[in-house]
Write a structure and sequence with these properties.
Residues 224-248 are annotated as: Disordered. Pathway: Metabolic intermediate degradation; oxalate degradation; CO(2) and formate from oxalate: step 1/2. The active site is at residue 170. With 412 residues, this protein is an alpha/beta fold. It is 34% helix and 14% strand. It folds into 2 domains: 12-207 and 341-409, 3-Layer(aba) Sandwich (Rossmann fold); 249-328, 2-Layer Sandwich (formyl-coa transferase, domain 3), CATH 3.30.1540.10. The chain is elongated and about 85 Å long.
Length: 412
């Protein structure tokens, strides 16, 4: 194969992010081919030491969000540290940060100052919230879920609001940030100018909850027939595993009844006749009480109960095989254990083994963005400050004798 350039070859990203929302974004940029330089305080990204499973080695929390990056240490509380950052900004295309609001400004790097150093730079910030009363709330994954509309609409009618296991606040915002950064780089091709990019976690979650705002407005015209709920107020209710969309669906239990022995089944109009036969109730295909979507809509709970009486007798993979044979839309509930062992996900480079100098091999999630001319090879995340010499001496031209001094002075 001819040597291939990657989509973002030649794009230098200064990664001043930590924890999850920022690192998830810069990792995607690295996988698209950018040279991502992670700028860490001398103590390192806090997640290197969080949720450790191997003593004295970087945690999975860190390694799974920081592949394909280089790491340098820099203390921005020192004068020399700020001088070095200025030199780094001068040579960068993108700077990404997710500090608390105003933190970068207080280091002396306002947008005006950054733009003065490098008018072509795209300066991207991930924050919890936009301007307003929430600006200084502390941003956490589930806080963003709570404030973006996700929690109020997740769970069962008679239960509390629920968080989703999907990190829609952190990693979800990271993907939105990548889209914005790429758009800004594309605009720079035309204008020659960089720009300021802001993405808030609350806003990203809200964007992912768009259909619930659709349903909020539909409520003005009466109850939502597609929801299995009986009682409606002026708020969109929690509707369990219903999609609330055009086709009713539900997670039905399978044998032997373990926590993830479920299949999600969707009942389309064309699927009712074969489904009625599969569940041993072929007469329901003709019965006017059941034959049409309109007739079934008020009885969704009863309908899925009938389906579950059949699925509960079979293992989920057998249920799937039979449903798929009749083109009935369905999917198994896959646990993290099943996903990590799933052959097809490994074959698609979505479950990937990565070697690490301190921990041995670990498993991570691969790049979901598949580009035919820009294939991703996932490489090991950097050790803390691993690339200080390469970047400070090799690229910024600092003298070899200055490095030990900087270390002694706590600058790196």
């Amino acid at each position: 194969m001819a040597s291939m350039t990657l989509a973002l070859d030649g794009v230098r990203v200064l990664d001043m992010t930590h924890v999850q929302s920022g690192p998830s974004a810069t990792q995607l940029l690295a996988w698209l081919g950018a040279d991502v330089v992670k700028v860490e305080a001398p103590g390192g990204d806090v997640t290197r030491r969080q949720l450790r499973d191997v003593p004295d080695a970087d945690s999975l929390y860190f390694t799974m969000l920081n592949c394909n990056k280089r790491s340098i240490t820099l203390n921005l509380k020192t004068e020399r540290g700020r001088e070095i950052l200025t030199a780094l900004v001068r040579g960068a295309d993108v700077l990404v940060e997710n500090f608390a609001p105003g933190a970068v400004d207080r280091m002396g790097f306002t947008w005006d100052r950054i733009r003065e150093i490098n008018p072509r730079i795209v300066y991207a910030s991930i924050k919890g919230f936009g301007d307003g009363p929430y600006t200084n709330f502390k941003a956490y994954e589930v806080v963003a879920q709570a404030m973006g509309g996700s929690m109020a609409t997740t769970g069962f009618e008679d239960g509390p609001p629920l968080a989703t296991g999907a990190q829609i606040g952190d990693s979800g915002t990271g993907v939105h940030a990548v889209a914005a950064i790429l758009a800004a780089l594309l605009q720079r091709e035309r204008t020659g100018r960089g720009q300021r990019v802001n993405v808030a976690m609350q806003h990203a979650v809200l964007n992912l909850c768009r259909v619930k705002l659709r349903d909020q407005q539909r409520l003005a015209h009466g109850p939502l027939a597609e929801y299995p709920n009986d009682d409606f107020t002026d708020d969109v209710p929690r509707s369990g595993n219903a999609s609330g969309g055009g086709q009713p669906g539900w997670a039905v239990r399978c044998a032997p009844g373990g926590p993830n022995d479920y299949v999600y089944v969707i009942v389309q109009p064309v699927g009712w006749t074969p489904l009625a036969a599969l569940i041993g109730r072929p007469e329901l295909a003709e019965d006017p009480e059941w034959a049409t979507p309109e007739a079934r809509l008020p009885k969704l709970a009863k309908m899925f109960q009938l389906i579950e009486e059949w699925t509960a007798t079979l293992p989920k993979w057998q249920v799937l095989e039979q449903l798929n044979r009749h083109n009935i839309p369905c999917g198994p509930i896959l646990s993290p254990k099943e996903i990590i062992e799933d052959r097809s996900l490994a074959d698609n480079d979505m479950i990937v083994e990565v070697a690490h100098p301190h921990r041995g091999t670990f498993t991570t999630v691969g790049n979901p963005l598949k580009l035919s001319d820009s294939p991703t090879t996932i490489t090991t995340p950097p050790l803390l400050g691993q690339h200080n010499e390469d970047i400070y001496i090799g690229e910024l031209g600092l003298s070899r004798s200055e490095l030990p001094q900087l270390k002694e002075q706590g600058v790196i």
